[in-house]
Amino acid sequence: MKKHIPNTITCLNLISGCIATYYAFQADYHLALLFIVIGAVFDFFDGMSARLLHVSSPIGKELDSLADDITFGFAPSAIVFSFLSPLTSHLSPLLPFLAFVMAAFSALRLAKFNLDERQALGFIGLPTPANALFWGALIVGLESYPHFEGMEWVILVGTFISCYLLIAEIPMFALKFKTWGWKGNEVKYIFLLTCIPLLLLLGVSGLAAIIAWYVILSVIHSRFFSHDT
């Protein structure tokens, strides 16, 4: 029985992504983001349960990637598609479909992750859950503000920047602690401490600012400080 627990949790992640996609197409971005967050929680616990129960399997690894591409690839793409559709109606009905390029790059990122042995303690490229949370939170935030001229192009350019970051050879730190001391964990503690004011000041849309800050901090750390740790 216990061997089925991790895969069941993974399937709950996938179902959360399907529900998030449904709400994305209904332009209910708050609920879409909520179910992406729920999917991220299931994604965290499926791997943990597999390790605790000692029931990791090749099929679980493949199922996890499939679920992640739905929840963290297709669902955020659907959010961007739904948000772009009314903005680009005067230009071309085809432009919003460019959002789904992000789902393809998310799948590519997940496939690379499965084969890349360098990512045991950190990441190479932007993790798909972080990318999904960025777009979900950003669109929720933008929904509260008046649309400005050229917003559609900013969103489209941002989408392609995300696609690049997903597969870029950029080292990004993971929030994994071998020890709890300051030395060797400086970038992690700085990141966690700065997350709090961003959330307090910006609310839900602060998640997007946090992910952007995570990318910037990762680049700074890998370029100037990683050789010291």
Question: What can you tell me about this protein's structure?
Answer:
The protein has about 230 residues and is mainly alpha-helical. Helix content is about 70%, strand content about 5%. The protein is built from 8 helices and 2 strands, in the order H-H-H-H-E-H-H-E-H-H. Strands 1-2 form a two-stranded antiparallel sheet. Helix 2 (about 30-55) packs antiparallel against helix 3 (about 60-85), helix 3 runs antiparallel to helix 4 (about 100-115) and helix 5 packs across helix 8 (about 205-225). It is globular and about 55 Å long. The N and C termini lie far apart (about 45 Å). The model has no long low-confidence stretch (mean pLDDT about 90).
Briefly note the structural class of the backbone. mainly alpha
Radius of gyration over alpha carbons?
18 Å
Averaged pLDDT? 89
Poorly predicted parts = none
Main pleated-sheet profile: 2 strands, antiparallel
Assign a percent range to the helix content: over 70%
Strand runs, count: 2
- Kindly report how far apart the N and C termini lie: 43 Å
Beta-strand proportion:
under 5%
Q: How many separate helices?
A: 8
Shape: globular
Strand order of the largest sheet: 1-2
